Target: Fumarate reductase flavoprotein subunit
Amino acid sequence: MRRIAMTMVLILVLITSMLAACTAPASQPQPAQGNEDITADVLVIGGGGAGLVSAITAAENGVKVILVEKMPAVGGNTIISATGITASDTQLHKDSGISFTVEDHYKRTIETGKGLADEKLVRVLVENSSAAYDWLVSLGLSYKIQSPEEPFWIVPTEGHYGAELVKALQAEAGKHKNLEIKLNTKATELITEEGKVVGAKVEGQGGEYVINAKAVILATGGLNNAPEMIAEYNPNYKGVHTEMTTPGPTGDGIKMAAAVGAQLRHMDLFQMRPLSSNGNWYKEVVISEEGKGGILVNLDGDRFVDETMKTWDLASEILKQKEGTAYIIFDNDVYETKEGKKTVEKGKGVKADTIEELAAQLGLDPAKLKATVDAYNAGQDPFNRKAMGKVTTAPFYGIKTLPSSHYTMGGVAINENAQVLKEDGSVIEGLYAAGEVVGGLYGAGRVAGNNTLDDIVFGKIAAKHAIGK
Model:
């Protein structure tokens, strides 16, 4: 069984207790009604960032809202997010005297997507980013710009990024008596009448029933905890690990939308973290630019790749090895760099005075690893790595790495109103989508923090359009 890192579980437990302390009765988990059908103006499926924003926005306008979440707590992958929010031309930028314009934001997002991003959706995203930031501040959250070198990246001044955001969203949801949150309740099928989505079948603790609604908003996340689906859409990622996700994102919304004729976009594209374990991501610089001398070896102690290749290619190369596993090997020179110490601390890396001792601690063949490192230090490289460096300065460090899916780039196609589209580009009436369930927004890559932004921007747009605002 694929395990979710203990750190993520602890975060979920912690945030659940915090949310319970600040949640009003209206949004406390409600028992399922068995076979009794119920009705709402808006049904939101999924209780991560996008789902909570959608539900809050609809409830603020006085309509009856039901949010169903299959997990025992809200939060989705937002709860473990460590990227803050990306926004442009905010008051924070003005007060700090640091420039990051809407056009800067647009250009960066398009370029990161390798030309595959939906330009119309990106334009909507960036032009609404300042308002999204203002809304977060209105919830009581406090932010700062990460650094003048990264003016796009706005991070909380205190607390865990994602956990604090979910805590604030849940507190806001609790203010609305017309918003009901049903936990441990999984949507299984969208219901249509004459081509219009009019509700969904759900399964709760009391059995299966129907929630009728004038509009349904999908906010179920991506495929990060559905490795079989990932491999189906992109065989290069067969055997991908699930170190960087919570249990919930298993493609439910994508499957339900496809079943009613939704267009899917970029389903073969995923943002991978080739270097990860224990729920942590290690920056690739430890085996490339800053790290210089770091290398990767497989379970046989062999190098198998140019470690400086693009991250998505690196992930697929590691997954081709035994057990889809590799070890990061570097010396004290790398350890003393900016990311070296962080990597060892987060990855619970092992340390040894010799390569042979390091191999023994990692369960590798000492003679084989020593030969591999010696060959690398001698400049013998069959993979044409441009920057070689050396692994020569004791002590030496080793960390197990399990390539993991970090973000699903593909998903359901939407328009600027967050309406789900059919294959021919026409809308599926009554059906909306926001968050990671959406595909085609970013193309082949995503700017860190844009995910939080699109939860807010398209979550609000979906809710407002769904109720005619």
About this structure: The CA atoms of residues 3 and 242 lie 7 Å apart. Confidence is low (pLDDT under 50) at residues 1-26.
